Amino acid sequence: MRENIYLSLALVMAPLSLAAIGGAPSIFAPMQHETVDIYHWLTAREFVEIFAVAKFAPGPGAMVSTLIGYKVAGWLGALVSTLALFLPSSLLCLAVTQAWNRHRGKLWHKAVEDGLGPIAAGLMFAGVLAIFRLAEAGPLSWLVAIVVGVILSLRSKVHPFALLALGAAVFAGVWLSGFQATGF
Amino acid sequence: MMKQPGSEVRLDQIYWVFCSIGAASFGGGITGWIHREIVHKRAWLSDDDMLSGIALSQIVPGANVTNTCVYVGNRLRGLPGAVAALVGLMTVPFWATIVVYSLWDQISSVPLLQAVVDGVAASAVGLNLRLAYVGARRSARRLTSFAIMLATFTAIGLLHWPILPVLFVLAPLSIALAWPRGGVDA
Q1: What is the pLDDT of residue B87?
Q2: Interface with B, mutate which of A42, A63, A123, A132 (most B CBs under 10 A)
Q3: Which of A106, A144, A145 sits opposite B185 (nearest CB)?
Q4: How far is it, in rounded angstroms, from Cα B75 to Cα B52?
Q5: Per-residue model confidence as pLDDT tens digits over B108-149
Q6: Mutate to test the interface with B, among A85, A113, A124, A153 (most CBs of B within 10 A)
Q7: Dist. CA B167–CA B161, nearest whole Å
Q8: CA R_g for chain B
Q9: 20 to 30 A Cα–Cα from B1, which one of A48, A61, A64, B175?
Q10: What's the distance, CA A171 to chain centroid?
Q11: How far is CA A135 from the centre of its chain?
């Protein structure tokens, strides 16, 4: 069962891809169980560290799979693991999207679109809350997020990179002045 | 002002937009950025189109952001568009996470760097807040839509009920409420 490490990686990640209902956070627990407890590819501590790395680097949280693949089997492992985690769900999403688009213009399509709008908005608010709660965000994070949101609403031409830099500068400034208020 | 989807958008344009989104995607604020780049700045899709895509992306299993990419790419240029968007989104993060991992011992010993990344992540969440606000304003056009939005937020954000059962109840209800009055489906 473990002769081919690439196959094992794919067999662990691919089912998780389709199990990630409501987004990647829902599969971190089973992913840890598979890779730490069952396959012993890494220790629990290494898993937590990889989680922190994925949070620090750009990209979806599910990039955890890339790092597990990299740790277990180098660059090729990283590639196999990434594809195995992202391809199945993407193909399913593609099929759903194409079916959805085929019916564009029909009356019920408009109703479904109008009906899903408020759901998406509610999910976005819930998502903001979830991100901050997961990260144990402090008041400074909330403040920066709200200020950025307001700036964007008032001056829509601002380049997002400028806003990201603003957040970085505020946090760095607060940290340098010695406050422990960050804790995103 | 809305372009006909797919008429002018080139694959390399899709790739590069998502490449920049991927490079800047710290801390989970990516959906707001996609909305900004695709709807607001380039007018490749409408608000309603994008919001329904976001909702679909959350219902279908998988990372929400990659699903949103697939939706947008496919909407603009079909399968090649979806591939361009997905590959674009993953290009920088794939290399960046591995580089960060290799340098992690050095990085984690510099708390200032951590503060900088936390600040970037907080700003990124601000992009999401802005998108949520856009959605909320559109929902506020109708009392029932607004109620559905609040119910979704309360059930998932505050009560932490599992997303699928909640959506299985609220989505059909919301669609029924949005059904055009007296309209007969074609």
Answers
A1: 96
A2: A123
A3: A106
A4: 12
A5: 888 888 888 888 888 888 888 888 898 899 889 899 999 999
A6: A124
A7: 10
A8: 19
A9: B175
A10: 22
A11: 13
Residue A128's pLDDT is 82
Q: Rounded distance, CA B56 to CA B40, Å?
A: 20
Q: Given CB atoms, is A89 within the 8 Å cutoff of chain B?
A: yes
Q: Which residue bears the tokens 């607060």?
A: A174
Residues of A in contact with B128 (CB under 8 A): 124, 127-128, 131, 145
Q: Nearest CA to B53 among B61, B64, B43?
A: B64
Q: Give the count of alpha carbons within 13 A of B42, CB side only.
A: 21
List the structure tokens of A173. 């400034």
Tell me whether B85 touches chain A (CB under 8 Å).
no
Q: Which two tokens stand for residue B176?
A: 């029924």
Rg (CA), chain A: 20
* CA nearest neighbour of A184 among A71, A46, A55: A55
Query: What phi-psi label fits residue A52: left (phi over 0), alpha (psi between -120 and 50 degrees) or beta?
Result: alpha
Contact B63 A61 (CB under 8 A): yes
A54 in contact with B, Cβ within 8 Å: yes
pLDDT band for B12, please (50, 70, 90 cuts).
very high
Show the tokens assigned to B48: 């309603």
Q: Does the CB of A141 have a partner CB in chain B at under 8 Å? A: yes
Instruction: Give the closest of A66, A111, A126 to B178, CB-based.
Output: A111
Identify whether the C-beta of residue B22 lies closer than 8 Å to the C-beta of residue B91: yes
Picking from A99, A35, A57, the residue whose alpha carbon sits closest to that of residue B59 is A99
Q: What share of chain A is helix, strand, coil (3-state, %, to 5)?
A: 80, 0, 20
